[in-house]
Write a structure and sequence with these properties.
Keywords: Membrane, Transmembrane, Transmembrane helix. This is DUF4386 family protein. This protein is an all-alpha fold. It has one domain. The protein has eight helices and no strands. Helix 4 packs antiparallel against helix 6. The N and C termini lie close together (7 Å).
Length: 215
């Protein structure tokens, strides 16, 4: 059990690191300046294919793999209860959505690059569809992740295994994630992402430092 909690803590820190890496890549490395909409989207995908692929791999399949470990570690950390099972289900669904979103983005970019020369119009329509699907699966609406974060924070607070400040932080940002399902609140997704960096980092440290008798 102690070993699993340590793996969970390391996984939480890895997820936080993936978010930091993603923000750094899309804000500081992958530059969209000079690319207009339409044909510019395709040129952007072709020029930035390698960097975008790297960013997607880290942000989605790698983060989702770490999330699977964390979900199980946190499920084992709290007393058996029906709510624990509910939280684990939402965590598993969230991990699956992250895997799917990453795979759609990676496959979609490859398809666009292949179509760009011979069928530019089809490449544009393909990229528009890929972007919409990927946004819906993992990025534009954070309802599933928000529910999991809020539930886990509530349960760990009730069990007394994390500081109350950490639990309230998780419940707050979980609620922010849930609110992104409302169209007018879609911009909250960036706040949710920043909140996840704080929450995953914090709970990762707690798990790594917790004595085996506690977690």
């Amino acid at each position: 059990m102690s070993s699993l909690s340590k793996w969970g803590g390391a996984s939480a820190l890895a997820i936080a690191a993936s978010y930091i890496f993603g923000f750094a890549m899309f804000l500081g490395v992958i530059d969209r300046t000079g690319y207009e909409r339409g044909a510019g989207d395709i040129a952007f995908v072709i020029d930035q294919h390698a960097m975008m692929s790297l960013a997607l791999i880290v942000l989605y399949p790698l983060a989702a793999s770490a999330l699977c470990i964390l979900v199980v570690a946190l499920r084992r950390a709290v007393p058996d209860s029906g709510w624990g099972e509910v939280a684990a289900i939402f965590g598993g669904i969230w991990a699956a959505l992250l895997f799917a979103s990453g795979f759609v983005g990676l496959s979609g970019m490859q398809a666009v690059v292949s179509l760009a020369d011979d069928a530019p119009d089809m490449a544009q329509s393909t990229w528009a569809a890929v972007a919409t699907i990927q946004d819906a699966l993992g990025g534009g609406i954070e309802l599933v992740g928000g529910i999991w974060m809020a539930l886990v924070s509530w349960m760990t607070m009730r069990s007394g295994i994390v500081p109350r400040a950490l639990a309230w932080t998780g419940m707050f940002f979980g609620a922010v994630g849930c609110a992104t399902v409302i169209p007018d609140f879609g911009d909250l997704v960036d706040i949710f992402g920043l909140g996840q960096i704080l929450w995953f980092s914090w709970i990762g440290v707690v798990l790594l430092r917790a004595p085996s008798k506690t977690i």
